[in-house]
Design goal:
The complex is a heterodimer of chains A (about 625) and B (about 170). By secondary structure, chain A is of the alpha/beta class. Helix content of chain A is about 50%, strand content about 10%. In chain B, about 30% of the residues are buried. Classes of the chains: A alpha/beta (about 625), B alpha+beta (about 170). At the A-B interface, α3 of A face α1 and α2 of B.
């Protein structure tokens, strides 16, 4: 089995966990070995009650299910369902932000305000909403209603698709995969994969791509853009990262999950004078709000709130014994947290009606009483501070500063207002290309090693790296998000980074903020008058685990970007499907997937791809 | 000699043993590699359905192995020390006598090939792949003595639980 982690803070906490006889995600992963072969290959179908059915992967048993579905049909249906679930998660997050903007515009949301009027105006213009002589609230209300229409609409195609290069839009139209509504594609995906509907794996995959596009160019893009309107568009900010951000003498509150609507209010509540006094009265030096997973990326990008860690560190944060409350909303929250929290004084507080956890305390959160609820949660954490068992407290030293907040707007500002300096550097070969490294952690692979190795190898070869999500946190912990990391870059990239005083790896936000990467890619393609698939760019998800990552991978490839997966997707049992995704899609979408668990080899694939794209554009490889 | 012991009550019919067996006998020895091999690997354990239940069946490495007796070329051998009934591909002429003589139906030919395959108890592994893969411990790799000891213990426990106060007078 692979080493568990390269993160020294994680290692220290794993030793503590072993000493205290507490099982973590890695132990549970070991207990699950060996994992089901049919499941790993994607050839198990549970979509109707004639089954479950399995296809023998070696041709030495049934080659079709009870209904006659082949391995390709079954694996494709399963894949499409994964995409639908991932797109649903991102898009429902987007919907919540839209709903909050509407409530804010109507004055019924407590504590929120419209922070970025310029972005509100720009979006209003994009959606054809009159702004002249109208208050920002009126405009925001109309914009939010238009956005809601996009979820279950009848007008034809998503508005944000128009941000893509004309060639890409035409390709989507030609293939019949331009999404017609965010909710509609997810519903149709579930319909098609229902017993006896779509059984052609090519047709299934095409709809899978359409569903994923409704996420990348729909739900996720709404989440990003509307969060910017409500909470401000991120600008470069210094953050600190890793478990060492927890403070021995303060009330530590970890916000974990995804949506900024709750966590923004927690940050606000933690600055409340009355609550600060209550914390001091309880014997604490202050209130320390830290983030975990994408919630932390959202807060970091806009407030510089410290990041306690990425996905595989959620239990480890509790194991420090120094966390008064871990406050969760939705997505990537392990139910195991309840059991680990029970070993300490930590209170696990769930807040979303969509996500309850056995063993957690539930404090329902909604935007109408947001600040009051946030204050109540902070108060619960303060009350808990005296119960901390000092003998169980051990906070690792590891913490490192880094630069985050590189939104599209921030990048443009760093470049002096236009993309041209970046384009010139790419044309001159100082920067060979751009690679996006995104995604999760996964106990199937050593924590952070895939992210760090791949990023190091790429910057060493003058590829600018942009990141989001747990990948960005991994590289922050590894010191690659500091301007000084330019020393690890190749000569060309290093010179550009030093000139602009930026790190060679850009932190662009949370997982829904991959939509920012789509916007940058489109802008570059438009500036060069080509399609996204012509650009020397690539995507990678070295340690992915979530269904959301499957949706992301599909919309990135569907947008024309070659993508390398580091953990193996459960589709290998469908030979035709594998060939379609890794080979055949090139002639259809202009991009394919590759699967490569070794990050060094993944880097080689990406470098080769970038060189080929440069040559095709008439640039020196 | 340890043997593959089947606890029928624990088998859920997941076929993990089958897939692990085939993988252990593939060129790459890995599932994700095996599915792309030009000659697919063969399983040597078979999960059979019996009404609503499922039973994994594989070679019992019989003491009086019919397959060894009928083999005209000596390809099928029983090792006197280890007890293993093994098959030498090089000496096999594909006559099919061993298949006919096996009371369990667990000696089978590769499709399109004269060569038969059967359980070899995974000589390179400390425990056969099927046993390691079983998620419910329906398969155990133990000696006959250990198996009987287990049965005796269970029987004894049942007797105690059933009616410990009964005294035959």
């Amino acid at each position: 089995m692979a080493e568990r982690t390269v993160d020294r803070a994680s290692l220290e906490m794993l030793k503590k966990a072993a000493r205290e006889n507490i099982g973590t995600v890695w132990d549970r992963f070991e207990s699950q070995q060996p994992q089901c072969g049919f499941g790993q290959l994607g050839v198990c179908c549970r979509n109707c009650n004639m089954g479950p059915c399995r296809i023998d992967p070696f041709g030495d048993g049934p080659e079709e299910g009870v209904c006659g579905a082949t391995a390709d049909t079954i694996a494709a249906r399963n894949l499409v369902r994964m995409i639908a679930a991932g797109a649903a998660a991102h898009s429902d997050h987007g919907r919540d932000v839209v709903t909050t903007l509407l409530a804010t515009a109507r004055g019924t949301a407590q504590g929120y305000q419209i922070k970025d009027e310029a972005k509100l105006q720009a979006l209003a213009e994009e959606f054809g909403i009159a702004t002249e002589g109208r208050s920002k609230e009126e405009v925001a209300a109309d914009l939010a209603r238009e956005a809601m229409e996009e979820f279950g609409m009848s007008k034809g195609a998503l508005q944000f698709l128009k941000r893509a290069p004309a060639k890409r839009q035409a390709l989507w139209e030609r293939l019949g995969i331009a999404p017609r509504g965010i909710d509609r594609e997810v519903v149709e995906a579930m319909h098609r994969t229902n017993m006896g509907v779509d059984n052609d794996y090519v047709n299934l995959v095409l709809h899978g791509v359409r569903t994923s596009l409704s996420d990348g160019w729909g739900g996720s893009m709404f989440a990003t853009e509307f969060s910017d309107v409500l909470f401000g568009t991120p600008m470069p900010v210094q953050g600190t990262c890793n478990l060492g951000v927890l403070k021995p003498d303060q009330v530590n509150v970890i916000v974990h999950g995804h949506e900024p609507t709750l966590s923004e209010m927690i940050v606000l509540a933690a600055r409340d004078e009355e609550l600060l006094k209550a914390a001091r009265d309880a014997g604490a030096g202050g209130i320390n709000v830290c983030g975990m997973c994408c919630t932390s990326n959202e807060l970091l990008m806009r407030h510089g709130v410290p990041i306690a860690g990425n996905f595989l560190q959620q239990e480890l944060a509790v194991i420090t014994g120094a966390v008064e409350a871990i406050v969760v909303d939705v997505q990537c929250i392990m139910p195991a947290l309840a059991n680990v929290a029970r070993c300490y004084h930590t209170r696990l507080i769930s807040t979303s009606p969509k996500a309850k956890f056995p063993g957690a305390e539930h404090v329902p959160f909604d935007e109408h009483a947001a600040l009051d609820t946030a204050k109540q949660i902070i108060r619960m954490a303060i009350e808990n501070y005296p119960r901390r068992k000092q003998e169980l407290v051990q906070i690792p030293d590891q913490q490192i500063s880094f630069i985050g907040g590189l939104s599209v707007e921030a990048i443009l500002q760093a470049l002096g207002g236009s993309l041209n300096p970046l384009l010139d550097a790419v044309k001159a070969g100082q920067i060979k290309g751009i690679a996006a490294i995104v995604g999760c952690n996964n106990p199937k692979t050593t924590q952070d090693q895939g992210h760090l190795t791949l990023a190091r190898e790429l910057i060493r070869n003058d590829v600018l790296v942009v990141e989001t999500g747990c990948a960005a946190i991994a590289c922050a912990k590894g010191g690659l998000l500091l301007p000084e990391a330019a020393a690890e870059a190749g000569q060309g990239l290093r010179a550009v980074c030093e000139l602009l005083k930026v790190p060679p790896v850009f932190h662009m936000g949370s997982c829904v903020d991959i939509s920012r990467i789509l916007v940058v890619a489109s802008a570059i393609a438009n500036a060069l008058g080509v399609d996204i698939s012509d650009l020397p760019v690539a995507g990678a998800a070295p340690e992915w685990m979530s269904e959301k990552a499957v949706a992301i991978g599909a919309y990135v490839v569907g947008s024309g970007i070659f993508t390398v997966l580091g953990t193996v997707p459960p589709i290998l049992g469908g030979k035709g499907l594998v060939d379609l995704l890794t080979n055949g899609a090139e002639g259809v979408l202009g991009a394919v997937f590759a699967v490569e668990p070794d990050p060094q080899k993944a880097a080689a694939l990406i470098l080769r791809h970038i060189a080929a794209k440069r040559l095709a554009l008439g640039l020196e490889a | 000699m340890r043997e593959v012991y089947v606890n029928v009550n624990r088998c859920l019919g997941c076929k993990s043993c089958e897939i692990a067996c085939a993988t252990a006998h593939s060129a790459s020895r890995s599932l994700l590699g095996a599915v792309f091999e030009p000659v697919p690997p063969r399983k040597r354990i078979y999960v059979q359905a019996v009404e609503q239940r499922s039973v994994p069946v594989s070679c019992r490495h019989c003491e009086e192995a019919g397959c060894v007796k009928v083999c005209p070329t000596g390809a099928m051998q029983k090792n006197a020390v280890t007890g293993l009934v093994s098959h030498d591909r090089g000496r096999c002429i594909g006559c099919g006598f061993c298949e006919m003589s096996c009371p369990f139906g667990v000696i089978n030919r590769y499709p399109g090939s004269k060569i038969v395959v059967k359980c070899d108890l995974c000589p390179d592994l400390s425990t056969p792949a099927c046993v390691m893969a079983c998620p419910t411990s329906a398969l155990l790799f133990i000696t006959a003595q250990e198996a009987q000891q287990k049965r005796r213990q269970l029987a004894a426990e049942q007797l105690v639980a059933g009616d410990a106060s009964t005294v035959i007078s």
